[in-house]
Amino acid sequence: MILCISHSNDYYTVDIVIKRLKELGKEVYRFNSDDFSNKLNFDYTGSSEGVSVTIQTPDLIFSSNDIEAVWYRKLWGITLPEDLDTSFHNIYVQEYSTMRNLFFGSLKNIPWMNPMNKDHEIAENKLEQLRLANESGLQIPESLFTNDAKKVKDFFYSVCKGNMIAKLHGSLSRSMSGDTPFFPTTLIEETDLDNLDTLGYCPMIFQRNIAKAYELRIIYVDGVFFTGKINAETSVKGKTDWRVADDVSLAWEPYVLPEEIGKRLTVMMKKMELFFGAIDMIRQKDGQYVFLEVNPQGEWGMIQRDLDYPIGETIAEKLVARIG
Predict the structure, then answer these.
(1) Which stretches within 188-258 are classed as H helix?
(2) Is 3.30.1490.20 the CATH number for 115-139+212-310?
(3) Residue 127 half-sphere exposure toward CB, CA atoms < 13 A
(4) What is the pTM of this model?
(5) What CATH superfamily is the domain 142-209?
(6) Residues 191-218: b if buried by 16+ CB within 10 A, e if exposed
(7) From the CA atom positions of the chain, what is the Rg in Å?
(8) How many CB atoms sit inside 10 A of residue 279's CB?
(9) What confidence tens digit (pLDDT) does each residue in 53-109 have?
């Protein structure tokens, strides 16, 4: 059995992967992480023969020993029962989260895409991403992550030469289309430097603004690349962040990644110990490629839909191939 970890509001991409897994002859269980609650029964047993976890859902009973591999797509918070007294909310989430983590831990010796600990470790450290990208031969933007307004001003003038952007370390959006709340990458003007009083409450990443010919969303699946190109340079609103470009019509275009860039990205992903990632890069007007970040749980539905790339199918095939 293949375990697919997602959430109850996920659709399209998860369906593609599950469909292909079944075509490959695999039994599949979609595990909605937010539903690990009183909606199911579980028991953890240990003996001289080992430890196992049994899960009982309304439709199925299975053991951790039945699972051959895991596709880790998304992890959401556990849903609280509507009738649960508020005084029990914290302990409910605490104990069910613990039991859920123990279940995941019981699967540590089988193939995962991606391993959960590595997935979280990389997603939560963009400066480490930049370090590993640079170490792998990729060009990166000059960056500063700080809550110090004076350092920002110095960086604006001395490093960025008056051309700087700001963004959050994390993401407020779960959508690649930008149709859910998010803080876009924002161009910082000189006049903005006098309005950094709130930086102490919300540290940010500041980077040199890169003159770009276009942006790339690169989906990496265990050595295979699927790349989409998008050009928002004609948009007044979306020039800095294409997701807010509602003043022009944008479309993804297929793109062939240069072999050398692909090799360097592969080296980087192996250093990160990731089998999947959505990578954002910029191609500068001088032809150079600049790495921005990798999201181990990044969205790829729009790329598959618009460019007819077999991303979900490749995820399924690569995962099955890793089962020994």
Answers:
(1) none
(2) no
(3) 7
(4) 0.88
(5) ATP-grasp fold, A domain (3.30.1490.20)
(6) eeeeebeebeeeebbbbbbbebebbbbb
(7) 22
(8) 24
(9) 999 998 899 999 999 999 999 999 999 999 999 999 999 999 999 999 999 999 999
